[in-house]
Amino acid sequence: MKEFRDAIPKLCKSCKLDKECRGGCKASAEVSTGPFYNCDPLLSFTSI
Predict the structure, then answer these.
(1) Count of CB atoms within 10 A of residue 40's CB?
(2) What is the pLDDT of residue 6?
(3) Residue 25, domain member (yes or no)
(4) DSSP, residue by residue, 1-47
(5) Half-sphere exposure of 41 toward its Cβ, with a 13 Å CA cutoff?
(6) Count of domains in the chain?
(7) What are the tens digits of pLDDT across the range 13-47?
(8) Residue 1 vs residue 27, higher pLDDT
């Protein structure tokens, strides 16, 4: 469970919101892409 909760996608590590967003919904990522540690496919990447 800790691995699931703490996983942050590599793409998100340099984002200012990584602690708040954490890559979006892990369940959505797992259903859509396979691995739960990928980004949520509905995640919006914006320049902040």
Answers:
(1) 21
(2) 82
(3) yes
(4) -HHHHH---GGGTT-TTHHHHTTS-HHHHHHHHSSTTSPPTT-----
(5) 9
(6) 1
(7) 888 888 888 888 999 999 999 989 888 988 877 65
(8) 27
Please tell me the pTM assigned to this model: 0.68
Residue 47 belongs to a domain:
no
Domain containing residue 13 = 2-33
Short-list 19, 26, 34, CA closest to 42:
26
CB neighbour class for 6 (10 Å; exposed up to 12, middle 13-18, buried from 19) = exposed
Please check whether residue 22 lies inside any domain of the structure: yes
Cβ-count burial 9-28 (b if 16+ within 10 Å, e if not) = beebeebeeeeebbbbbbeb
Residue 8 lies in a domain: yes
